[in-house]
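Students often ask why inverse folding is considered easier than folding. One informal answer: many sequences map to the same fold, so there is more than one right answer. In these notes we will look at a single instance of the problem. The structure comes first.
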């Protein structure tokens, strides 16, 4: 039963790939770049044969998903644009994903495109979690080096002031949420009473309890709005509790480091040295259970769309809520605060969007199961400060513009890219 709960579309990334062959009109080059902090990142460079020295490049990336063969690339390559699938250091790994460090990965790709490839304009393709990642980069890139963030939300130094960070010349934001932390704010189960005993539940805050209006899947539920208000408030309270746990873990590590740095530490009793070094080097991991509890999954009246029942991850969120896989399941305290805490993360388009003044287009997929028009797409569009911004709505498309029924495999991608190419060619001509 458990295996059937998982959405293969999401977990296997089955649609974040080419949906047509490109071997007849594009060449591929593997990339291995070194970031400012000496981390190696890998990606793929795709060059159109019709334009071997493109002056405009489109770069796509996601905090953890492999975008090296993004489904948008074939249409862009046919049009003559260079494409880079820029994988991050946290590829397929949420455990120690710190967004402030990922900005150095993006900078390595952008600098390489400009310095080694002769690219004059770089356009960001921010699909899904790539939207908030790209807007965060753009915000920091446009600040003077001394104004950039010096520390992560966990207090760890990050040398952004020392990094060459060329800003994007335009941005395409497709089927994006407002930030991974804000997703957790919406999906975390507030009925969990004890992080160390995740089955201990407050029934008054359990959205899957029939007493609160829930109906058996796949019937749609219509919650009382007072319940929703209490529920959302309790979700933020649980995130705040986990933030406190993360900071407490970090404080314990700091105490160990302070002991190790005390004068005369080398002469201290060996037992004391050993205890201090263990505290200073110990890396705890937060386990956040039950993060599949967004009322949007089962109530389509809160932010109405023609979407189906459930989420990207599963069409049975009430059961998936207790499974191993889920949003923000395992993180170090540093990664939780930087990436998945909606109260602490800097990768939040509602905060970074006002820094975006370049041409930008926001794409909304009307039947998306985890990105909703009022909650995400319209909020992103309104947060952006650009005077040249466009909203494209595809009311019948899913999150990855997957085909449905007897449609050709590339139907959704071509529909989106026809509109996006018209937008791009008028702003960044080759």
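Output (designed amino acids):
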């Amino acid at each position: 039963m458990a295996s059937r709960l998982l959405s293969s579309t999401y977990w296997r990334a089955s649609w974040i790939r080419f949906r047509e062959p490109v071997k007849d009109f594009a060449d591929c080059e593997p990339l291995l770049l070194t970031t400012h902090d000496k981390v190696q990142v890998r990606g793929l460079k795709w060059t159109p044969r019709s334009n071997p020295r493109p002056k405009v490049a489109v770069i796509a990336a996601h905090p953890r998903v492999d975008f090296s063969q993004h489904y948008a690339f074939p249409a862009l390559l046919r049009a003559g644009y260079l494409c880079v699938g820029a994988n991050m250091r946290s590829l397929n790994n949420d455990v120690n994903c710190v967004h402030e460090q990922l900005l150095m990965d993006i900078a390595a790709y952008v600098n390489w495109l400009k310095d080694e490839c002769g690219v004059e304009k770089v356009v960001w393709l921010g699909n899904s979690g790539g939207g908030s990642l790209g807007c965060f980069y753009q915000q920091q890139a446009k600040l003077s080096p001394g104004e950039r963030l010096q520390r992560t939300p966990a207090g760890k130094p990050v040398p952004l002031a020392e990094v060459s960070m060329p800003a994007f010349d335009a941005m395409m934001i497709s089927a994006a949420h407002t930030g991974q932390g804000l997703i957790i704010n919406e999906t975390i189960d507030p009925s969990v009473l004890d992080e160390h005993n995740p089955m201990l539940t407050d029934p008054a805050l359990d959205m899957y309890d029939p007493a609160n209006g829930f109906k058996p899947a796949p019937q749609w539920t219509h919650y009382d709005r007072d319940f929703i208000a209490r529920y959302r408030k309790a979700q933020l309270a649980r995130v705040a509790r986990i933030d406190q746990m993360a900071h407490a873990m970090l404080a314990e590590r700091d105490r160990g480091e302070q002991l190790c740095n005390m004068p005369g530490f080398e002469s201290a009793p060996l037992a004391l040295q050993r205890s201090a070094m263990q505290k200073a080097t110990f890396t705890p991991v937060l386990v956040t259970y039950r993060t599949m509890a967004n009322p949007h999954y089962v109530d389509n009246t809160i932010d109405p769309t023609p979407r189906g029942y459930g989420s990207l991850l599963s069409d049975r969120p009430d059961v998936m809520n207790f499974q191993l896989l889920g949003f923000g399941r395992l993180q170090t305290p540093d990664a939780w605060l930087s990436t998945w805490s909606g109260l602490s993360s800097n990768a939040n388009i509602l905060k970074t969007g006002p820094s975006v003044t370049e041409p930008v287009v926001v794409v909304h997929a009307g039947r998306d199961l985890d990105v909703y028009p009022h909650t995400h797409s319209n909020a992103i569009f309104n947060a952006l400060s650009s005077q040249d911004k466009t909203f494209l709505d595809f009311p019948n498309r899913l999150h990855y513009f997957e085909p449905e029924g007897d449609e050709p495999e590339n139907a959704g991608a071509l529909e989106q890219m026809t509109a996006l190419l018209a937008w791009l060619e008028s702003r960044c001509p080759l």
